[in-house]
Amino acid sequence: MISITDKSKCCGCAACAQKCPKQCISMEYDAEGCEYPVVNADQCIDCGLCEKACPVLNVDKDEPKSQRAFLVQHNDQKVLAESTSGGAFTALAQAVIANGGIVFGAGYLRGEQLVRAEGAPGRLKVGHFSVESVDELWRFRNSKYVQSVVGPAYPEVKQQLKTGREVLFIGTPCQCEGLLRFLGGKPANLRVADFVCRANPARAVFARQVEWLDAKVGVKGETVLFRDKTRFGYRYSNMCELEGETLYGERLYSEGVETDPYLRAFFADLSDRPICYECPFKKRYRVTDLTCWDFFDVYRLSKEFDDNRGVTRVLIQSDEGQELLDRASSYARMKEIDVEAAVEGVRELTKSVKLNPHRDEFMADVANLDGEELMNKWFPDSGKVKAERFARHTCEKLGIYDPMKRLVKKFIKK
Ligand SMILES: Cc1cc2nc3c(=O)[nH]c(=O)nc-3n(C[C@H](O)[C@H](O)[C@H](O)COP(=O)(O)OP(=O)(O)OC[C@H]3O[C@@H](n4cnc5c(N)ncnc54)[C@H](O)[C@@H]3O)c2cc1C
Q: For the chain, does the N or the C end have fewer beta carbons within 10 angstroms?
């Protein structure tokens, strides 16, 4: 039976719990807000199906295969503005829905959906669910830098596949491999798209961030956008909060990567789920159909896509992935790029983030302090932070943000 003695060996996908024929595995949240399987040994029949379904115990090999790469930018300016990068995921989802299909992705759980993340910390919860109409796809747009609760999504995918319709599942590399392990293979009507995933922050840290925001803003906003492009564009996206559930409207809060405490914790590698520091799914050649990610330095390969509105890099992992991208070309402009140039220097594709030696200390404070105490202790708005914010905002206003960023990068490399 599955037994988690080392938390860095579990990605929380729940494939084991969903596969158990006796339903004797429950997913339980720890103080960091990460879920792990707990087996009721009295009911376990030792069939071994949970271990067979575990993507961590059965990681797929990183074996070279033929690949192609594309730049993708959605044609609809509203979709593009709401998306993290170029809106490729929305274009792929539109192609599947146009074919009578259904799409599973991650968004804020609302109303009755909240039961899918019962026990998870915080008042704003992100989880996987399905959408069948193009009008609802906005709920998936924009990356949520917090682990999504997979919950019952895998058996729901299976049920939809049985009806014969096309199903698209979008998730982290671990969630995608977990789905394929749960299903025991990839049925012909399933499409799976993952992304280059730096790491996935633990939910308790996001819960503290929301508490901190509540105190700072004085209003309980319903949506946190992790990569808002509406203020300064794609190259300097901001963490922001909105009052309602939509992705537009007045911003209650908006700060960049140098100032926002949650983003500072994320990029300091303090806040991630334990497995992210030794992620076994960091691979160039994946079991998914397509892999999507950002391209801030797109000027290296294309001037026409370098317009500060966002672009997605798409790596084709299978013939089905190519066929789906071809169908999605009705909704987005695309350009093929050299595949080696596309993956060159993309550290997050194949390498895990480094464990910050202060992580345990930080997580102890996450468990014991409220949001305001935590963020003020670890990420104060110091003189250095204020100076960096001033420099970034001034460069942005003068229209020299991008050349300055390139210059600083060059300087750091030397
Ligand atoms: C946790 C995380 C880490 C990432 N790390 C990197 C990185 O290091 N480098 C890089 O270049 N790109 C990274 N990305 C991917 C990047 O942010 C964009 O999602 C990608 O470029 C596609 O953008 P888009 O405009 O095409 O799609 P978008 O419209 O932004 O769609 C995002 C899609 O991702 C799914 N999604 C959103 N949040 C989650 C979540 N928490 N868990 C599972 N699925 C989710 C949604 O279902 C949606 O379909 C990361 C994304 C996430 C969620």
A: C
